[in-house]
Design a protein that fits this description.
Blueprint lengths: L5 E6 L3 H12 L4 E5 L15 H8 L4 H22 L15 E2 L2 E2 L26 H15 L2 E4 L3 E6 L4 E5 L4 E8 L6 H6 L5 E2 L3 E11 L7 E5 L2 E5 L5 E7 L12 H12 L4 E11 L3 E3 L4 E2 L2 E3 L5 E2 L6 H22 L8 H25 L3 H14 L2 H12 L38 E5 L2 H6 L7 E5 L8 E6 L5 E6 L5 H12 L3
Helix pairs in contact: 1-4, 1-7, 7-8
């Protein structure tokens, strides 16, 4: 078959699938998203974005919408604090978000504010409290603006791949695309049918997360708590509860979560006599941790939970998937349009797989520290003392926030391979403002590097500007996903490295 309905078929219309669709449209290719649910899933899920995620959305012009959602959620957090305050007493403002590790809370006043890893990210340093549902709505609006087609209530039932493309069968009509990307969650149909290896570790916990109405909530502590029978979290918004119990996994993951089930779990873990009077949204989860050995088999790729599953502690899953979409989108678009250098699409697995593997181990370590047995609790006490130091808190905060993430790229400058700093340019704009259109960016004051960029056309945006905040910096080549591919200081401009970086990432001019 040589005719196509669309360039790329994306299975799954959650945040990862929608983010990928937006990136593909910026890259100039057609895309259809197939989502089995007719509406946004209201089930409580991730509640925060990490630094790389906020940076990515900021670079695509979505900062105002993110800031509005963050501020609205902070008001809800303040309302929860007000409920917990003694009648007539002062309301303590919510602490600056710093995260937790294995239910050990990080105190923001222990952070080393001088650590360079915690600064220089622009608004991404100040925004993060955005829920998965809010983000999905924002991305759906963005995808529609960019011309992506999203078909809701359509489930992928199978596909046949050949040398030229993929024919996808659905609960409605089939769709023919050049490529298929599975963003269809931890139980991915695409992953299973394509035959991706998915090794990992078996689960050992039974956990719940819910928004409920309950009596006796004042007897629950705020935040995360380890108890003799497990772990629970209360807040940061009214009615939010999370419980972790050891000794087995849920008998039926798909059965509706009842008020009685939640009440029994809360009582068992917290030792209180709360009464759950209503359930707004609830879900079960375990710590099943698995990762596909590769994210590509022929014309089929995986992103998000379809490529890796793990416990949700620390909100790593949503953010990991958004990073997948940002990394894959421009590379797949370049491949479709025919200008991708050889091997570009294979760098998707090479760059994202190690970060996914780290996340799996990060969540496994937390489960090990949550166990209620004496050995784990003894180790937990040691870790609590370490985390309660400036060095410890700063280390864990940097890991949780994702600021450590970088890719292995050729180049001797320390900025190469990392996320581009949000520098102010001489005209008053920020570096992120120059990335809204999804093109690569060459920025700097010298004419000679700009001359090397001739012939790349719409693939590359050239901005002749200086860096008032970093006068020692002579130039940057930033990939479409915001990562630095080349950098040079004024006292040593390595044009040879730029001559290698340009075709390595943008193909033949």
């Amino acid at each position: 078959m040589s005719s196509y309905d669309v360039d790329v078929v994306v299975a799954g219309g959650g945040p990862v699938g929608l983010m990928l669709a937006c990136e593909l449209r910026l890259g100039g290719v057609s895309v259809v998203v197939l989502e089995r649910l007719a509406e946004v899933d209201p089930t409580i899920k991730a509640g925060a974005l990490n630094t790389p995620s906020v940076e990515a959305l900021y670079r695509r012009g979505m900062l105002p919408a993110l800031r509005e959602a963050h501020e609205r959620n902070m008001e809800a957090v303040t309302g929860f604090a007000r409920q917990r305050a003694p009648e007539g007493g002062p309301v303590q403002p919510p602490p600056r978000f710093a995260g937790h590790f294995a239910a050990i809370m990080l105190s923001a006043d222990r952070l080393d504010a001088s650590d360079p890893g915690l600064t220089g990210h622009g608004p991404a340093d100040l925004i993060g409290l955005v829920s998965q549902q809010q983000l999905e709505v924002l991305l759906a609006e963005r995808a529609a603006e960019l011309g992506a087609e999203v078909r809701r209530g359509v489930e992928v039932t199978g596909f046949a791949a050949d040398a030229d493309g993929v024919t996808v069968t659905t609960t409605r009509e089939p769709v023919r695309g050049r490529w298929l990307v599975g963003c269809d969650g931890g139980r991915s149909t695409v992953r299973k049918l394509a035959g991706f290896d998915f090794p990992g570790t078996e689960p050992e916990i039974s956990a719940h997360q819910a928004l409920v109405e309950m009596e006796g909530a004042e007897s629950l502590g705020r935040g995360w708590h380890a108890t003799p029978t497990g772990v629970y979290a209360h807040g940061p918004v009214p009615g939010r509860i999370l419980t972790v119990e050891f000794g087995g996994t849920p008998a039926d993951r798909d059965a509706p979560v009842t008020a009685d089930e939640l009440q029994a779990s809360i009582r068992n873990v917290s030792g209180t006599d709360v009464v759950v009077t209503g359930v707004k949204t609830a879900t079960r989860f375990t710590d099943n941790a698995r990762q596909a050995t590769t994210y590509r088999l022929g014309r089929v790729l995986l992103a998000g939970d379809a490529a890796h599953v793990h416990s949700p502690f620390g909100g790593q899953g949503l953010n990991l998937g958004l990073g997948d979409a940002m990394n894959l989108g421009w590379k797949l678009a370049a491949t479709v349009r025919g200008w991708a250098p050889e091997g570009l699409l294979d760098t998707y697995t090479a760059e994202r797989h190690p970060i996914g593997a780290w996340v799996l181990d990060w969540t496994r370590a937390q489960v090990a520290l949550m166990r209620p047995d004496p050995r784990a609790r003894a180790l937990r006490q040691v870790m609590t003392e370490l985390i309660d130091t400036v060095t410890g808190t700063t280390y864990f905060a940097k890991k949780i926030s994702g600021v450590w993430q970088r890719y292995d790229m050729d180049g001797g400058h320390p900025l190469v391979g990392g996320s581009a700093p949000d520098l102010e340019l001489a005209d008053g704009s920020r570096l992120a403002d120059q990335l809204h259109d999804g093109r690569a960016l060459l920025i700097g004051p010298d004419d000679e590097p700009h001359a090397l960029a001739g012939g790349y056309g719409e693939r590359l945006k050239v901005v002749p500007a200086s860096f008032p905040e970093r006068p020692e910096l002579a130039g940057l080549l930033v990939r479409p996903d915001g990562f630095v591919a080349w950098a040079a200081d004024a006292d040593q401009v390595d044009l040879g490295a730029l001559k290698q970086a340009l075709p390595a990432w943008l193909g033949t001019p």
